[in-house]
Amino acid sequence: MEILTSQQMRHIDRRAIRRFGLPEIVLMENAGLRVYEVLKGLDENLQARRVLLLCGKGNNGGDAFVLARHLRNAGIPFTALLFGRRHEVRGSAAANLRALERMGVATREIRGGASWKAARRLLETCDLVVDGILGTGLSRPAAGLLARVFDEVNAARALVVAIDIPSGLSGDTGDVPGPCLKADHTVTFVRPKVPHVFPPAEAQCGTLHVADIGIPNEAVAAEKADLDLLDAAELARLLPKRRPDSHKGDYGHALVIAGSRGKGGAARLASLGALRAGCGLVTAAVPAGLQSGFVSRAMEVMTEGLPETADGTLAASGLDRLLGLLDGKQALAIGPGLTTHPETMTLIREVVLRARIPVILDADGVNAFAGSDDLLSGRKRPLVLTPHPGEMGRLLGTSGSVVQARRVPLARGFSRRHACHLVLKGYRTLIATPGGHVHVNPTGNPGMATGGSGDVLAGLLAGLLAQGIEVSAATKLGVYLHGLAGDLAAAEVGQAPLIARDILQHFPAALLRLKPPRAHEKSAALPNARRIG
Q1: Would you give the distance in Å from CA 278 to the centre of its chain?
Q2: What would the mean pLDDT of 303-310 be, rounded to a whole number?
Q3: Of 20, 45, 254, 319, which is most buried by a Cβ count within 10 Å?
């Protein structure tokens, strides 16, 4: 499901009108009707509520005028406030305002502080405020009267429903540029917009309702948006099917290079993650000192004990054996728990540069290329990096906070330059592709901020790739299912007590949950989102 900017949405509207012949006033009518349907769904006793409509002079206000007409027809009491003068309303919005007035409904003009002060008492008695002031029409941070209005609406006890996006937010960024309304629900049209998805703006939107207003999918697809939300229905179609007569050799053999003294759990979690993903065989290459204890804790995993340094990390002398282990394998995960021991870092770089099978580079595998990211390339075989912001910062020679502030452009640029897939972990994990497309993952929760969670993900990705799943499909499936398993675990044990093993244990349930929908079903891409219409 595409995530759109305000400009992209304007292009789509224009395309729907000019190419597909859908009049703007029809789209406005559909939008207002969808908002009305959401309101009815939120409160079955809407006729007994007092509704206050805040209307702007543009198309967002036009949607509110349509809503007002449907409220009037249903006998639902409301008051409509117009922030501006009637003669300033243009186009389809003006047509809907005239229709409303011909039904005998007067809109009160709010021209300044005095007229707002006179109308403000309505906030004290209304049950529901509908925000149709700005939508995506913000050109600069709100100030003056609007800033005062936003503050006072936010302080009121009424439920707030925003049309498109809460007024005061930008349609092009996840930032909060200035004063804005905080909505309990937001009804947007066609597709989610950037502020609906990314923090901190996301928190101002409340529950998101994505409404169909009749714009053809072709009009959206022609925009070629390069940012989207992972969608369960689309991902379900990527799941491989198993033949009844298949055997373990049909599902690939993954090699996991991981672990060091005191960090053997990272190797076990990654190896078991690969098996949980459906991989037929997994071999864990670990320092020799870890091998004896590995079997009792992960008996399904084959092991190779390799030479180790005095500190219990993988020694460079094991390079030839590791390269030999790549033969007959279909995917490699390297990095969990390896440490930044200089000898081990050298070993990691050599293995990654020589490998000709798909590589998952995680944790200390990423750290091994800090300051040398020019060596990384996915042109000779698929390469997937799975850093958290701190690791990404070290890789780029900057800070984790800089990475967090520019997640999408940094991820997109890196994946393009290095012809790789980049999984930038965190809230709303990103998957950037070599072609510059960025997928946003809606699953996962703060309980997954625990040691070992990333090790499980690295293993899951290796297990999916080992089965021969195309790299883009494998990364999307792995990231989404990893987050979904974490959500199922949190629902059972809570977020604070959640540990990485809980993610592993709930992965089968997540896999069962991700099934192709029936033809009449639609999915919502965000956990707090609903598709309507």
Answers
A1: 25
A2: 96
A3: 254
| DSSP structure class, residue 373 | G
pTM of the model: 0.91
Pure H helices in 20-88: 24-42, 59-73
**Token digits for 223?**
């925009």
Instruction: With residue 405 as reference, give the H or E element that holds it.
Output: helix 400-405
* E-strand stretches of 355-501: 359-362, 383-386, 421-424, 430-432, 438-440
The span from the first CA to the last CA of the chain, in angstroms, equals 16
CB 330 within 8 A of CB 253: yes
Q: Which residues pair with 117 in a beta bridge?
A: none
Which residues 6+ apart lie within 8 Å of 230 measured at CB? 431, 439, 440, 441, 442, 443, 476, 479, 480, 525
Residue 333 has pLDDT above 70, yes or no: yes
Q: Which of 320, 237, 318 is nearest to 517 (CA)?
A: 237
Structural domains in the chain, sorted by start: 6-226 (3.40.50.10260), 251-513 (3.40.1190.20)
Q: pLDDT tens digits for 31-79? A: 999 999 999 999 989 989 999 999 999 999 999 999 999 999 999 999 9
Distance CA(315)–CA(450), nearest Å, equals 28
- Tell me the residue ranges of DSSP E strands in 365-425: 383-386, 421-424
Nearest alpha-carbon partner for 105 in 64, 153, 137, 154: 64
Question: What are the tens digits of pLDDT across the range 336-346?
Answer: 999 999 999 99
Contact in structure between 429 and 386 (CB atoms under 8 Å): no
Pairwise CA distance, residues 42 & 62, whole Å: 22
pLDDT confidence tier of residue 533, bands split at 50, 70 and 90: low
Q: Report the residue count for the chain.
A: 533
- Sheet of 185-189: strands edge to edge? 108-109, 78-82, 51-55, 128-132, 159-163, 185-189, 207-211, 529-532
| Burial grade of 165 (CB within 10 A; 0-12, 13-18, 19 or more) | buried
Ramachandran bin of 417, using left for φ above 0, alpha for ψ from -120 to 50, beta for the remaining angles? alpha
Alpha-carbon distances of 451 from 134, 160, 478, 493, 497, rounded to whole Å? 43, 39, 18, 17, 12
Q: What is the average pLDDT across 414-437?
A: 97
Neighbour tally for 95: CB within 10 Å: 16
| Over residues 319-348, mean pLDDT | 97
Residue 445 DSSP one-character state = -
User: Which pLDDT score is estimated for 426?
Assistant: 95
Residues 393, 398, 401, CA angle at the centre, nearest 5°? 70
- The count of C-alpha atoms lying within 13 angstroms of the C-alpha of 387, restricted to the half-sphere facing its C-beta, is 30
β 185-189/207-211 pair status:
parallel
CB-CB contact of 267 with 284 (8 Å): yes
Residue entry with tokens 């992209």: 8
8 A C-beta contact, residue 138 and residue 132: no
Q: Which two tokens stand for residue 489?
A: 């675990």
Residue 79 corresponds to which tokens in the numbers above? 């008051």
